[in-house]
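> agent: user asked for a holo structure of the chain below bound to NAP. Plan: (1) validate sequence alphabet, (2) canonicalize SMILES, (3) run complex prediction with ligand conditioning, (4) return tokens. Step 1... ok. Step 2... ok. Step 3 dispatched.
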Amino acid sequence: MQYRKLGNSDLEVSEIALGSWLTYGVGVEADQARACLDEAFDQGINFIDTANVYGRGAAERFLGQALQGRPRDSYILAIKLFFPMSETDRGLSAGQVEKQLDASLERLRTDHVDLYQCHRYDADTPLEETMHALTRAIDSGKTRYIGFSEWPADKIKAAIDMAGVARFVSSQPQYSLVWRAPEDDVIPLCAANGISQIVWSPLGQGVLSGKYDPDRPPPRDSRAASQEMGGFMDRLMQPDLLRAVQELKPIADDAGLTLPQFALAWVLREPNVAAAIIGASRPEQVRENAAASGAIVDTRLFERAEAIIDRALATEPA
Ligand SMILES: NC(=O)c1ccc[n+]([C@@H]2O[C@H](COP(=O)([O-])OP(=O)(O)OC[C@H]3O[C@@H](n4cnc5c(N)ncnc54)[C@H](OP(=O)(O)O)[C@@H]3O)[C@@H](O)[C@H]2O)c1
């Protein structure tokens, strides 16, 4: 496993990080989830991403239990707040920044996290209020660094330009061969300001593994077939896109990689990406995906893959 510096922080994060959206505490049963986590550590993964809203606390509770017994300084823990935790608890007000951090720490059974991320931008709270609250969270020692997820570029810029507050070190956008939006504004802005990308759904929720045959129902043990986990895949499960992904298999072969490894290596080709945050429903996936770290791929293979996917996305139904 190779490691990259997270923005202007002193954190060295593994290029492959392990996430917990939909999976741990929710769709993947506890023994299997624990096996994934153990495999991650065996593979040198040191970066764990979660959020208060994943299973409304269930993912954090799972991690709090499963991480007991591992030295706290042997892993880097990233959490998020913003989405509703109750009828009244949501957003990025000063009160919520403090309250949700304390609640996450309790579920995670630790006294600090390494990265406290704003899961989205909160248009109902002045940015100054959020930034000062995040700064106090760092001063309190409850988080070491702060980040954001899916903020628009103008809000990122406003935070960068604000005086007297802590600096963001990470941005968490969706980024993959099938979702390249961050390349327009977010990556250049962040790269110029000491902010790394830690990217979500780098495998397009598993679509970029090539396991979805456009002419067959999804495999029964896959996310797309899962009642609990498959609800966010409509945009991805389009026949034209699934067919295009099949065309990537010989290209990955030429690179000497499996298709999931090729898709992860594509994400990691971008120097502003510090880590690809994968999901995994079984330990074999963690092992396969971790091996993408350090892969060296001829850029012409990436260009061929991009052309195939871009063509399929251009024909997407509106
Ligand atoms: N900031 C945000 O708004 C946001 C949003 C979403 C996610 N995230 C973060 O990003 C993390 C990753 O998101 P994601 O789970 O969508 O990522 P992903 O890596 O694109 O998809 C993960 C899923 O793909 C399948 N898979 C993984 N490796 C595979 C392999 N080698 N072969 C075949 N199938 C494989 C597994 O599902 P099955 O085996 O069940 O098919 C796995 O659960 C989340 O856990 C979360 O921490 C953040």
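> agent: step 4 complete. Summary for user: The mean pLDDT is 97. Strands lie at 3-5, 12-14, 16-18, 47-49, 76-81, 113-118, 143-148, 168-171, 196-200, 273-278.
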